Amino acid sequence: MTLPSGGMPPDLHADWSSLEFVFRAFPSSRAQRQVWREMSQSIHQRLLQRGHMGLPALLPGLVHARLATALLAAGYRRRAQLANQSILCLGCHAGLEIRILKDFNAGDVRGVEIRSEVITEAVACGLIAQDDVWIGDFWDFLKSGYCGVWDEIVVLAPEQLSLAQLWPLAQESLLPGGHLVVVAQPSDVMDIPVGAAHGSAMEGTMMWLSLTREE
Question: For the sheet containing 197-201, what is the strand order?
Fold first, then answer.
C-alpha cells in the first residue's frame, strides 16, 4: 500500500512500534490487569457458547497496546493527560478499551458496537455499564446527528475501513484540534487522505494513522 504524505509528527522520535515503550508510556497496575483478564475470560467463554470464534478484542494486553499506540498518536504522553478528555471508540466490541480508558481516569468515554449480544455479555460480567455503549452501526451513528462532539475518536483493528469516507463524518464529531486515530493492519485501511500522519505499530505487525481537525 502506498501511503500519502504525512508520517510521524516531527517532535516524536520514540519507538512506538516497541510494546515495551507503549506499556511504559501508559502503564497499568497488576490489580487492573487481573480484573481485565478475569472479566475478558468470562465474556470469552459466554460468547463461545453463543458461537463466536476468535476474539482478539478480548485479549487485554493486545487491546492495551493498541490503545496506548492510539493515545500516543493523538498526542498524549502519560495517563494524567487523559483527565477530562472525551473519547469515542468506534467498533468497540465488548468495550475492553472503554474499561481500560476509564481505569486510566479518562473523562467521558463511550463506544459504538453493532453486536448487541457482545455488549449484553460485557455488561453482565461487569466490564462496562450499559450506558457506556451505543448499540448500532457506527456509520449510521455518526450520520445521525446525535453523536455529540469529542476530543478524540479511536478505531482499533477495523476491517476494510475507508478512511476517506470516515474522516468527513468524524470531523463533524470532533472538537477543534481533535483527532481521528486508527490502529490497524495495513491491508485493512483503504483510501487514506493526503496528510494523514502514520507510522509502524505493534512490533511492525500493525500501523497507526492520525488525522487532526483544524482549529
Answer: 133-135, 109-113, 87-90, 150-156, 174-184, 206-212, 197-201
Nearest to 17 by CA among 202, 208, 206: 202
Condensed to tens digits (0 to 9), the pLDDT of residues 161-201 reads 999 999 999 999 999 999 999 999 999 999 999 889 999 99
Phi and psi torsions of 120, nearest 5°: -55, -45
Is residue 87 a contact partner of residue 150, using CB atoms and an 8 Å limit?
A: yes
CA distance linking residue 215 with residue 212, whole number of Å = 9
β-pair partners for 212: 179
Cβ-proximal residues to 131 (8 Å cutoff; 6+ apart), any chain? none
> Residues 46-64: what's their mean pLDDT?
88
Please check whether residue 111 is in contact with residue 133, taking contact to mean a CB–CB distance below 8 angstroms: yes
* Count of positions (residues) in the chain: 215
The pairing of beta strand 161-162 with beta strand 189-190: parallel
Sign of the four-CA dihedral 135, 141, 145, 147: positive
Quick one: 27 exposed, middle or buried, by C-beta within 10 A (0-12, 13-18, 19+)? middle
pLDDT of residue 55: 77
11-20, 52-61, 92-101, 189-198: which range is least confident on average?
A: 11-20
pLDDT at position 7, please? 47
Distance linking the first and last C-alpha atoms of the chain: 30
